[in-house]
């Protein structure tokens, strides 16, 4: 279910009850800003996150932000690291 942010504000109680049964996506500026879910579903999602290993979380991060990581690596290769030549000792 998708609702506008204004509608969610005006009918919060109704959508709060609806979120007990299904996720309610709140749209703002033509994008999903938040999703309301039941407390039970939120607890399930939290439990799933806690069971992931550090390696799994690292892989997910690298997959999600692969383009950003590549851009940062390219920037460091091209420009270097600020203050790299300065050593306090």
UniProtKB/TrEMBL annotation:
<comment type="function">
    <text>Antitoxin component of a type II toxin-antitoxin (TA) system.</text>
</comment>
<comment type="similarity">
    <text>Belongs to the phD/YefM antitoxin family.</text>
</comment>
<dbReference type="InterPro" id="IPR006442">
    <property type="entry name" value="Antitoxin_Phd/YefM"/>
</dbReference>
<dbReference type="InterPro" id="IPR036165">
    <property type="entry name" value="YefM-like_sf"/>
</dbReference>
<protein>
    <recommendedName>
        <fullName>Antitoxin</fullName>
    </recommendedName>
</protein>
<dbReference type="Pfam" id="PF02604">
    <property type="entry name" value="PhdYeFM_antitox"/>
</dbReference>
């Amino acid at each position: 279910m998708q609702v506008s942010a204004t509608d969610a504000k005006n009918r919060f109680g109704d959508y709060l009850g609806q979120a007990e049964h299904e996720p309610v996506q709140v749209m703002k500026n033509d994008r999903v800003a938040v999703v309301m879910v039941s407390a039970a579903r939120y607890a399930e999602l939290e439990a799933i996150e806690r069971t992931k290993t550090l390696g799994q979380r690292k892989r997910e991060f690298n997959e999600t932000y692969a383009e950003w990581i590549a851009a940062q690596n390219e920037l460091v290769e091209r420009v270097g690291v600020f203050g790299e030549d300065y050593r306090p000792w």
